[in-house]
Amino acid sequence: MIFKKSHTVTQPHTFFSCFTEEQLSYMFMRENWTRLDEDKRQDLLQEVVNRECTKLGDKFNCNVYFENMSPEVSGMQCGDNNIILNRDNFVFDKHQVEFEGKTITMQCDYSGYKAYETVMHEFRHVYQNMVSKGVIETDPYTKAVYESNNFTVTELNGQRASQYMSGYTGYQFYYLNPTELDARRFSEQKTINLISAQCQQYGSDTSMEQYRYELSVNGYETQLEKCKEDFNNENIDKDIEKILIYRYNHINISFDPKLELMIEKEMIITQQHIDNSYYNKEEIKMGNKIDWANVSVSREEYNQTLRDSVNRFYEHEMNDPSISKEEAMANTAQMAENYENAMEEFDAAQAANNNGTENQSGMDNDTGGIGDD
Asked: Exposure string (b/e) for 134-144, b if CB count within 10 Å is 16 or more?
């Protein structure tokens, strides 16, 4: 690793600053993690991030926060160097699982390990940004991969296209973002190393085994193998890297035509959603309302559509470098309020329609009764 010549920074002081690596690792074991309040958990996660920054030469800081977030989002990196973690997940240890088509909220016994994995995942995104910006230097190909898979815009066939894929045409495309694969590989390996060191020192426990089991089902290696099977391509991850690099640098090299078309479609649709998010933000600022009275859709479908919109808006706002974190939260709060108002309007419209139907039904019954007499 090569560091550019620049000033170093001082990492923020935490309660755990004086802990050894072994003592720090010990705090993520279930018996200790469950004793930590929100402030101590934030300090612990901040400290492990501080030490990662120090390993890279103290060239930058990285700040860790807890926020109220959508259940679908465990954490995110926003701006250049902020990490936002889901308060429900990592303060109250609540996690959601899908079972027989239903979403169930339950306590997570290995929340400490998931918190460590998540903060390392988001830290890796910060690292990727630092490489892209030239704060940290690495090999040219890795830098090219990071630069070509960011929230930047490319023109494809006269249309705006995002270099980062959000998975609108298929979840695999989100998963196969090179930066996401890199972050998952890094964070999961860091967590496994942490647990292995604990096992050698203190022995295993059920929370460790539960985390390992989750990785065997949903981890980096398992999911990547599934993607290779789905695309019938053993090199799908490397092929996507090359396609994104070619598009980003406007290199006209032909590739697998079918895969190229799929990737380009995803890139264009992702950018359309991003552009629509900007439009929605302007709608919010102007206070415009949408008339949903004639929407023909089930309440469940309507509710999920609006929730998805809020979640995408939140993610976009948090990654928008032109606004502050406070502005992003305020804009999202307004979007969430609009969502609640829209649901109330939907319910009111449905209730009015039902009442009208009942009244008409009653009139028909009365008329029938008179005729019978």
From this structure: ebbeeeeeebb
Q: pLDDT higher for 3 or 350?
A: 350
**How many whole angstroms separate alpha carbon 191 and alpha carbon 248?**
33
pLDDT in tens, 285-338: 444 443 434 444 456 555 555 565 566 566 666 665 556 666 666 666 666 666
Q: Is 157 left (phi over 0), alpha (psi -120 to 50) or beta?
A: left
Residue 93: left if φ>0, alpha if ψ -120 to 50, beta else—which one? left
| Listed residue (52, 41, 34) closest to 121, CA to CA | 52
The amino acid that residue 238 corresponds to is: K
Residue 367 burial (10 A CB sphere; 0-12, 13-18, 19+): exposed
Domain boundaries, the chain: 1-138, 145-256, 289-368
Give per-residue pLDDT as tens, 189-230.
999 999 999 999 889 999 999 999 999 999 999 999 999 999
* Range scoring the smallest mean pLDDT among 150-159, 170-179, 251-260, 357-366: 357-366
What's the rounded Cα separation, in Å, for the pair 134 and 344?
49
317 against 182, higher pLDDT: 182
For residues 15 and 126, what is the distance between their CA atoms, to the nearest angstrom?
Answer: 23
The pTM of the full predicted model, rounded to 2 decimals, is 0.75
Distance CA(133)–CA(126), nearest Å, equals 11
Bridge partners (DSSP) of residue 107 are 94
